């Protein structure tokens, strides 16, 4: 049996960027032909795309993890790594994207609407792209950045012109089946309808859609009876129709009190999209009242008794019977007139354009704060990105990082705030001891590939030492073989 899922949490992980390549061109008579390491490929992004053929979030219920491919590593001979393809995820029309903090990120309405849910990581630069006047043949490359990881909540809100609301067993599903080709489940017990049913109604040459929202009860706006799940689907409806059971035998209930109870729940409900940019506030939507089951004699008398009180509110009233097919044609054309009038009052839709927010040139791109334990924490998108791109096993890469931080002004800001030699400085996930006497931001004295003369005083094992150790191990194995 098909299932209707209208709220899921997905774990989106974009692809990581590929690492850059550190390579030197070599051929006969040209032992050092210059750096030729290619850049790593960018990671793939996760993009949500509205597809009219998708009507539920059921696929995400069973497969909540969405992972995009990563970029490939760069290679020698200036060959860049392949970029990871963007992963397009199909979602139904009316999907709202909410982040872990409850903020609405996107309102996906209209076929083809796109939203980048998670951005792929940038590929690392190869040593060919890092060559400069100071570093003519860099012995290092930058690492690729990790892709963005986010937990997102997808909420589906039914997109329909008319929303039918009412108490359980009021006849909403029967009405949808009578005026459209939809075949919802119909039974003589409450809460037969557990998911919204959509029907397409023809009014002459015109068509509009009707949504049968599951039954509401007092307290639905606080979640009673799964009311929040049901109320979510009326946010997109242009016209709200109260379907009233005039033949109910429950004590204390009559059509007017039922309408008042439903209006109280609508007024108390706080929608996710406050002031929907397309349809306006929920309280301002046009209303209509359908008095159902007038084929019952007592129900017919009740409808005639309360009709004047309801019309005094300025709402059109229709007396119908879905079983006897009474009053359906005037209802259909009356609803179409309300839908067309409401559509005409709305401002013309404006095409959505991408919003570009450039960063001012003089804006400070980092901040330095004391950590309360004698150290400092550097925050900022650029320093944190540079830390993630650095291979700390390579002295030359560490020296290049120090030069970048010095040019950005991190060294000067640490001195201004009273940083002492040897104090801890944390940037991103890396914590290190600060040595202000290490000259950063100055011309680099050429040395072996993968080394930096400014870091000779450190305890880090340099590239030349690793090469010497490998030679010693190889020589010892040769001596043992002899």
Task: Write up this protein.
By secondary structure, the chain is α/β, with parallel strands linked by helices. The protein has three domains: 7-156, Spo0b-associated Gtp-binding Protein, Chain: A (Distorted Sandwich), CATH 2.70.210; 162-345, Rossmann fold, CATH 3.40.50; 366-479, GMP Synthetase, Chain A, domain 3 (2-Layer Sandwich). It has eleven helices and 18 strands. The strands form four sheets. Strands 10-11-9-12-13-14 form a six-stranded mixed beta sheet, sandwiched between helices. Strands 3-1-8-5-6 form a five-stranded mixed beta sheet. A four-stranded mixed beta sheet has the order 15-16-17-18. Strand 10 and strand 11 (206-212) form a beta hairpin. It starts with 6 loop residues before the first strand and ends with a helix. 39% of the residues are buried. Mean pLDDT is 79; it is low at 187-194, 219-228 and 273-278.
Q: How would the blueprint of this fold be written?
A:
Blueprint: E1 7-13, E2 46-50, H1 58-62, E3 65-67, E4 87-91, E5 95-98, E6 104-108, E7 114-118, H2 127-130, E8 149-156, E9 162-165, H3 172-179, E10 197-203, E11 206-212, H4 227-231, E12 239-245, H5 255-268, E13 287-292, H6 297-311, E14 317-319, H7 328-345, E15 367-370, E16 376-379, H8 381-389, H9 395-408, H10 410-416, E17 424-427, E18 430-433, H11 463-481
Parallel strand pairs: 1-3, 2-4, 9-11, 9-12, 12-13, 13-14, 16-17
Antiparallel strand pairs: 1-8, 2-7, 5-6, 5-8, 10-11, 15-16, 17-18
Task: Compute the number of strand runs.
Answer: 18
Helix and strand element order: EEHEEEEEHEEHEEHEHEHEHEEHHHEEH
Radius of gyration: 33 Å
Mean pLDDT: 79
Q: Order of strands in the sheet with the most strands?
A: 10-11-9-12-13-14
Helix content: 10-25%
Give a short account of the largest sheet: 6 strands, mixed
Subunit structure: Monomer.
Binding site for GTP: 166-173, 191-195, 212-215, 292-295, 321-323
Keywords: Cytoplasm, GTP-binding, Hydrolase, Magnesium, Metal-binding, Nucleotide-binding
Subcellular location: Cytoplasm
